[in-house]
Amino acid sequence: MHRFLVVIEKAEANYSAYSPDLPGCIATGASREEAERNMHEAIEMHVRGLVEDNLPIPESTSFAEYVAVD
Predict the structure, then answer these.
(1) How distant, in Å, are the alpha carbons of 16, 19, 30, 57 from that of 23?
(2) CA–CA separation, 62 and 66 (whole Å)
(3) Is residue 60 part of a domain?
(4) Does pTM surpass 0.85?
(5) How far apart are CA 43 and CA 25, in angstroms?
(6) Domain-located, residue 21
(7) Which of 51, 43, 4 is nearest to 24 (CA)?
(8) 10 near 33, Cβ under 8 Å?
(9) Which of 12, 17, 61, 68 has the most beta carbons within 10 angstroms of its beta carbon?
(10) What total of structural domains would you count in the chain?
């Protein structure tokens, strides 16, 4: 099993998602939930393509942290 950080951002009219550990693997959706579902499918397809092409699956090295300031 592989785990990847996914960043979901609100755009003007929709949401976009990407994984810093999988360059070029992106998705969009009308809602946050749709973008998340679409990104899950995009990652599955991306990883499947890497396996089919005998390329290594990148290690997940990204992490996220919230920082609170006053």
Answers:
(1) 14, 7, 22, 12
(2) 14
(3) no
(4) yes
(5) 7
(6) yes
(7) 43
(8) no
(9) 17
(10) 1
Name the one residue in this structure whose structure tokens are 């089919």: 52
CB 17 within 8 A of CB 9: yes
Is 15 within the bounds of a domain?
A: yes
Residues 6+ apart with CB under 8 A from 62: 4, 5, 19, 20, 21
pLDDT one-digit tens code per residue, 30-67: 999 999 999 999 999 999 999 999 999 999 999 999 99
Strand partners, 16: 9, 28
Reported in sequence order, the residue ranges of 1-70 that DSSP labels E, i.e. its strands, are: 7-10, 15-18, 26-29
Range of the domain at 21: 7-52
How many residues belong to the chain? 70
